[in-house]
Amino acid sequence: MSSALCPLRPRFLALALAGLAVVVAVSGCAQGSSPSAGPGEAMGTEASAAVPGHKTGGTLVIGITAVNSPPLDTALTSAQGYEGYRLVGYQLYDALTGYELQQSTEIPPLKPDLATSWKANAEATEWTFKLREGVTFTDGTPFNAAAAVFNFKRYTDPHFKYTSPELIGQAATFAGMIESVEEVDPYTVKLKTLAPDSHLPEDISTAFMASPTAVKKEGVKGFGAHPVGTGPFEFGSETQGQELELLPNPDYWAGAPKLEKLILKPLADPAARIAALRTGAVNWIEYPMPDDIASLESEGFQVLANSYDHIWPWVLNSSEGPLKDPRVRQALNYAIDREAMADSLLQGTAEPAYQIAPHANAAYTAANDLYSYDPGKAKELLAEAGYPNGFTMTVEYPTSGSGNMIPQPMNEALQQELAALGIDVKLKPVEWSALLGEVIAGKLPAGIDAMNISLTFLQESSWGLYFGSEGPLNLGHYSNPKVDALLAEAQSTVDPQARSHLYQEASALITHDAPWLFVVNDRNPRALAPNVHGFVEPKSWFIDLTNVTVS
After folding, report:
1. Which of 321, 420, 409, 408 is nearest to 374 (CA)?
2. What H or E segment, with its residue span, contains residue 382?
3. What is the rounded CA–CA span in Å between residue 90 and residue 480?
4. Do 170 and 89 contact (CB within 8 A), yes or no?
5. What is the maximum span of the chain, computed from C-alpha positions, in angstroms?
6. Cα separations (Å) of 116 from 28, 92, 97, 108?
7. Contact assessment for residue 149 and residue 189, using Cβ atoms and an 8 Å cutoff
8. How confident is the model at residue 16 (pLDDT cuts 50, 70, 90)?
9. What is the predicted pLDDT for the residue at 82?
10. Percentage of the chain with pLDDT > 70?
C-alpha cells in the first residue's frame, strides 16, 4: 500500500477504539455534476413555498428514527448516525466548512461556513483557514482562532483536559489525519496532517465548534447537557427518550431561522411515526414506510425524496470461505433484482445500485454500472467457483437506524432470491448501536460472513477507510494494490474534479471485485404536514431549516 495512506491506520484505530461508537456513514466528493434522476422522481424535492400573506414562525416537530435524541456534544451527535448530524449537529453548531443546501438539483458544493477561505501547501499537508469575523457563540463567547484551536484539540489530543476518549473516537473519521493545529493570528488557523490530505476541507464539514467558555464551565460530561454553539438554533430543554427542544438563535451570523421552535421526538417504530404525523403530534417525520406513501400523499401530506450520498450494501467477507472467491461475490451481485426492490418493495424511495458509487456522489459515472439481474450468469459463476449447489452464509443486519430503511423486509427479500441459487442465508438481527460498536473493531464478528449496514462517502476519507488494504473500516479485508494506488493518488490531489476521476477509476475496480453486495441507494424520503413551508430537499444527508415555517 502506498505510504501516503499508511499513517491513517494506527492512529485511526487507536482513536476509534477509544470511543463508544464511530460514524460509519462517511465520505464522498461534494462537488461534481448532478446525476440523472432515479426512480421515485414523482415525489417532490421541495416543500411548498410560503403563500402570500403567510406568517413566518411556528413550531416544527420532527419524528426521528432513533430510540433517543442524539447526544448533544459536537462529534457525539454522530452516535445516532447521520440523523444526529442532520438534526442536532447542524442545528446547534457550525463547522469551518459546510454545504450549499438551499437547492435540490445539484450535488451540494462545499461552501465557507465559519471559515471564509482556505488553501493548501503544495504537498497538501498544511491547510490554512481564514476565519469569519464577528461571530459569537450563543453564550456571547467570540468565535476566533483560539476557539477553533480549542475544538480541534478536543478532537485530536487525548491528553487535552477538555476532551474524552468517546469524543476523540467519534471524531476520528473526520479528524484522524490531523497532526496539529496552530493559531497563526486571531482569525487564521493552520491544520497540519499526518500525510497528504487533499480532501480535508470536505472531511471537517462535521467538525463542529463548541464554546470553549461553556466546555470549561460545564466540564466534558456536563457540556453535553448544556451545549453551546454558533449554529442557527440553541439548546432549549430535553427529556431523554421523549423530546429535545431547540430554539432559534436570534443573532445567527447567517440570518436567524424563521421558526419559533424546533422539537425532535424519538419515534423509532415506523408505525408510531406515521400515527404521530396523522394525529398531528408531529408535523414532519423522517423515513415514512414505503407502503404508506401513496395514502399519505392522497391525504394531502407532502412526501419528499431526492438522491443523496448513500448506499445500502452487504459488506462481504473477502478473506475466507466461499466469499473469498471474487466469482462468488460477483454471482451474488448478479443474483438480486434491485429494480424490484427499489420499485415494488421500497415504492420508489430508493434507486438500484449497480456499482459502488452512489448516484449522488461525484465518483458516480454510468459507465461503471456493471451488475444486472441475471440469475443464469450467477449460476455459471457459482459453478466455476466450485459451488454449483450453493453454500450457507450468515448475514448480520441492524433492526433500525439512520439510513437503514426497512432492513428486515429488505434482507428477507435478498434471502429468498439467493435461496433460488442454493445459497442458504441465515439472518441475524442486531440493535443499531450494538452494530456500530462492532464496526469499531474493524472486522466482521466471528461467524458472520456479511454485514448489512447503511453507508456513505460524504467524507472522502472513507474510500480509504472502506477499501484501502489497511483501511480500519475494511471489515471484509478486501485488498487490491491498484485501488490502493488510486486512493493514495487521490489523497494528494487537491483539485476536486481530478480527484473525482481517480475515484471513478477506483470505483470501476472495486465494482468488478465486488467486495460488497451493491443493493440500493436510498432517496431520503420524509413526510411533512401541508402547513410546513419553505423546505428544500437537497441531494444530501444534511438539511437547512432556517427558511422553514409552520402555519
Report:
1. 420
2. helix 375-384
3. 36
4. no
5. 71
6. 22, 20, 8, 17
7. yes
8. very low
9. 83
10. 89
Q: Taking all residues of the chain, what is their mean pLDDT, rounded to a whole number? A: 89
Q: For residues 348 and 368, what is the distance between their CA atoms, to the nearest angstrom?
A: 22
Beta bridge partners of 520: 312, 352
In sign, the C-alpha dihedral spanning 20, 232, 287, 175 is negative
Place of cell 432513533: 66
Strand-strand pairing, 312-316 and 302-304: unpaired
- Of 349, 348, 295, 304, nearest to 534 by C-alpha is 304
Q: Rounded to an integer, what distance in angstroms lies between the CA atom of residue 100 and that of residue 77?
A: 21
Q: Has residue 460 got a pLDDT over 70?
A: yes
**Mean pLDDT confidence for 23-29:** 34
Q: pLDDT at residue 279 above 60? A: yes
Note the pLDDT tens digit of each residue in 297-322. Answer: 999 999 999 999 999 999 999 999 99
Dist. CA 205–CA 112, nearest whole Å:
10
Q: Which of 316, 256, 277, 310 is nearest to 530 (CA)?
A: 277
* CB atoms inside a 10 Å sphere around CB 188: 16
Give SS3 for 220: helix
CA 348 to CA 512: how far, in whole Å? 26
Calpha distance 403→286 (Å, rounded)? 10
Q: Residues for the chain: how many in total?
A: 551
Q: Which of 183, 167, 179, 149 is nearest to 219 (CA)?
A: 167
- For residue 11, the model assigns a pLDDT of 42
Q: pLDDT by residue (tens digit) across 482-523? A: 999 999 999 999 999 999 999 999 999 999 999 999 999 999
Rounded to the nearest 5 degrees, what angle is found at the Cα of 352, between the Cα atoms of 348 and 355? 160
pLDDT of 4 higher than 90: no
In sequence order, the β-bridge partners of residue 261 are: 59
Task: Assign 370 to helix, strand or coil.
Answer: coil
The stretch 30-47 carries a mean pLDDT of 38
Tell me how far apart the alpha carbons of residues 113 and 110 are, in angstroms, rounded to a whole number.
9
Dihedral pair phi/psi, residue 303, rounded to 5°: -110, 115
Paired with 181 in beta bridges are 191
Q: Which residues have C-beta within 8 Å of that of residue 290, sequence separation ≥ 6?
A: 345, 346, 347, 348, 349, 406, 525
Question: What local confidence, expressed as pLDDT, does residue 66 receive?
Answer: 84
pLDDT band at 43 (very low <50, low <70, confident <90, very high): low
Residue 33: CB atoms within 10 A of its CB come to 12
pLDDT of residue 470: 93
Cα dist from 64 to 67, 69, 244, 264, 466, whole Å: 8, 8, 11, 7, 28
Any idea what DSSP says for residue 344?
I
Alpha-carbon separation of residue 77 from 91, 159, 256, 494 (angstroms) = 11, 22, 22, 29
Specify the DSSP class assigned to residue 546: T
Q: List, in order, residues 6 or more apart from 388 with CB less than 8 Å away.
A: 379, 382, 422
157-196 pLDDT, tens digit per residue, is: 999 999 999 999 889 889 989 999 999 999 999 999 999 9
SS3 content of the chain, % helix, strand, coil (to 5): 35, 20, 45
Q: How far apart are CA 27 and CA 507, in angstroms?
A: 14
